[in-house]
Write a structure and sequence with these properties.
- This protein has helices at 7-33, 39-61, 68-94, 104-126, 132-157, 163-189, 198-226, 236-261, 284-303, 310-323, 329-347.
- The protein is an all-alpha fold and 375 residues long.
- The chain has a domain at 1-129: Up-down Bundle (Ferritin).
- Helix 5 packs parallel to helix 7 (198-226) and helix 9 (284-303) packs antiparallel against helix 10.
- Mean pLDDT is 80; it is low at 275-329 and 347-375.
- Bound molecules: fe (ii) ion.
- Fe (ii) ion binds next to helix 4 and helix 8.
Amino acid sequence: MGNVGCPLNELLLNELRFWLRIMKEHALFIRLGLPCNETRLIQMAQDFESRFAELEEKSKAVSPGRGLDQLANDSLKAVLEFIQYKTLVLDRIIECRMGGANYPLLIDHIRREAIRFAINIIRFRRGELMTPTEELIQDEVFWLRIMADHAKFIAHLLDPSERKFVCQAEMFSDTFDNLRCQSEDFESMLEITPRPIPSLLRFTAEVKEAGTEIRNFKAAATQLLTNCKILSLIPPLLADHVRREAEKFLMDLDRDLRMLKQMPAPSAPPCATSPPVLENTGDVSQEESLKKSDNTGLHEKEQGTETLSPTDAEQTTESFAETGGSKTFAESSAEISETVAEKLKEDFAAPLQPIYRPKKTFFTGNTTQVKINFK
Ligand SMILES: [Fe+2]
């Protein structure tokens, strides 16, 4: 690599600076929650903490043109080992072979974060960006679950007497659980061809609003904890840690939306975009040919990115409904199928890009050595 002006290198450096600190703190949080007789695991956590602290210091000194490749390699090696360590700890906890004060969901949560960090190092180094819409959806699916987890940790670590704050945290938990489910629905629906449909953009605005609210809640909680004005088991560093993650969540969303805006405008459709005015001449064949062009026009609307707005979506629905009157669905379908097939061939002349979705198949165990080969 070593391409100084490459925006991917900027992205990579930002990721390293953010997540190396987070990984260092994860090592500390795990260590504090381990049972005191687990001396080997405690020592390993301590070693990871020192290792990530060193890498974090280095990340402050490197620039995209100087030392970034080496730092990325060293960080990836460290985080892959850390994933294996977290896997081991989680495995022992959920098999009830180890006690301590680490919630299983906390270890699962920080393991997911480490996997995301590793994946981002790999794909930014390989230059594997998804389409802007996929980046947006994947970020929402990932971060909404993280935010929902944070709300649950806060609710369960506050002193039970702090009823108002517990209630607020539980409300955030419900909000983000629901938003997460909806983001997974979008992920599923837009698997056919990811594109920024108006409802996804409206949903993203809601996500940003909820993200800002939980960020402010965490910032207020951090202040209260620092000033000893709230009863809880939450160390102020943990509160600040989750606040920084909320900031990162909002920054990632803003970056995704910026990239969406920079998408090239779709090529002009071959048919007229505004429906031609139908003169009432009594000529049935003219009417039917217009119906055909309306139906094929629906597909072109779907491909658009720049012109999508709620109004467009409404118009599309209306024009589709208008065309369905005089013929059965089967008749209309048979008539237009040839035209649509031709249109589909044109639109998808180039194969659809495979979706980069390693989250469910990546790093599954703690015994296999993971080898990464940059090509
Ligand atoms: Fe987190």
